[in-house]
Amino acid sequence: MIPSTTPSMLMQIQPTIQKFARMLSSVVQLEVEIVDSALYRVAGTGMFSKQLGQKLNTNSRLLRYIIDTKKEKVVTHSRFDPLCKDCTNKQECAEKAFLGTPVIYQNQCVGVISLVALTREQQARINANIQEFSDYVRHVSTIVVSRFLQDQAGGENIQKIFLTMIENMDQGVLVIGNDQKVKFANQTALKIMGFNQSSVIGKEIQFQPLTFEDNFKHGHMQHIISFDDRKELIIGQLHAVQDQWLFLMAFHQSHSSADFSAGQEGPQIEALVGECRPMRQLKKLITRVAPSPSSVMIVGESGTGKEVVARAIHKLSDRQAKPFIAINCAAIPEQLLESELFGYVKGAFTGASANGKTGLIQAANSGTLFLDEIGDMPLTLQAKLLRAIESREIQPVGASHPVPVDIRIISATNQNLDQYIAEGKFREDLYYRLNVIPLRLPPLRERQEDIELLIHYFLHLHTRRLNLVYPGVAQDVLDLLRRYRWPGNIRELSNLMEYLVNVAPSGEIIDMSLLPPNLLSSSDLAEPSAARSSSAPASQEESVTALEEMERQMIREALSRYSNKKQAADELGIGIATLYRKIKKYDLAAG
Ligand SMILES: Nc1ncnc2c1ncn2[C@@H]1O[C@H](COP(=O)(O)OP(=O)(O)OP(=O)(O)O)[C@@H](O)[C@H]1O
Ligand SMILES: [Mg+2]
Fold first, then answer.
1. Percent of the chain scored above 90 by pLDDT?
2. What's the CATH number of domain 9-153, 3.10.28.20, 1.10.260.40, 3.30.450.40, 3.30.450.20?
């Protein structure tokens, strides 16, 4: 046992564990609590994010059970489990379902990771995938915890791990001494450079970074490597490690992996990644309409990049040096929204600041005003906004004179404003004023072609930001992510990549085992090739064709693996006659 005066292993790396908890929660979409073996709360999300570092004051029977038995514990209906029977906290307990997994390190249970369902939807999801969630948490926690604990251990241990790791990495690695001479090159590095071990070791090597970014510290960049009289252009990171240098070569697994900004057609808008047709068209349109003073309305699901587009328009306009002011109409209460937008003069109302206040519209003068979630603007303010747009002046609360303003308005919504208009929640006249230039952002599931590009974009972004090693991505992971329906769109993809770079063992490949189980559940997967265009649940007819499509795909794959039809039929678990019938039905004869 660890004496209670010294912090436990998990507690010693608390910030890391907390970060892991937050990310795990976001990808499995359940609350997460992590305690150590002495029942101190190390990390938590939502209602578990309080009292971190303190000993739990509830009786914690479930957690104690897991620590004592080193076994996982599932509660499908909290309060009804035998372990909950005598719990004194039963009445206040907000948990609907619970899955606790022991964190095992060197055969010891050093803590417990719990996934907690607080809603019925979450409860149903845990209960439908208990085994998957449990296996998953165990797998990921083993990687994460042992990696961080080992990092802590330091010393010789690390050096040994380090060398074995380098030798076994799929990523090319060079170790260079301070004298610029190569001390070690792993097999992959030799292959990439086209050298053999003996011609490299002890030779002098020069690195010349090619970068256009200021303050570039880490992350991938192109380097020209000069060696003997050869020069090679290689993408990689150079790290100073004590008295030597490490050069980590980027994975060259696909054409798009590192140079996602180079050599594509159409206008380049830095922050707006996407090369599929709709995105190229959108970028063209943005460059064309940016200089105009007309209002733009951006429509798109949550997380599709509406704000990114609004900022890009501002940046490409001749207002770029002037303010870009964003206001979220849904986030501010009605009474405040008016004074925020229009400002007030001194003494306008009780509680108003003595000097009055400049409204955001006025603050955006000569610049761009971004009205996010415009559908949530209350009707009274809609009228006032319309007046301001038509007269190009505003009337601060309590003011006797209007103030002239010159603003460009970009608004954004993920709601169906037509319906709002029909229901009388949104003014039609304002709608036409705001929607002079309509822009629609496609949901990510309609942009399958861009997914790989975006994956690498975010891997690059997050590894650079967090100073981690750029991982590879297994082909089946890419295939699956291309088919996933991404209800949270690009934001969800970005969060997932941030999570994955954190849990992937350093410098290794992100494989299926690291994907959260809820991503693997088929309801959120589209059929392989065609992305469906609506998010409405499939009608019965549609789901029949989806099944057929899946069957066709499976048969085609089996046929390509086995030239012998009998073996293919065996693998598919169908009779040979059925196989021939299906081959005919799906027109697969050639395969
Ligand atoms: N095309 C893109 N290229 C790169 N990053 C993007 C792109 N689109 C969105 N993102 C990133 O995804 C995240 C969500 O984007 P953004 O906030 O613009 O979405 P939104 O449509 O405004 O979502 P919401 O409706 O939820 O407010 C941000 O981190 C943004 O940087
Ligand atoms: Mg937004």
1. 33
2. 3.30.450.40
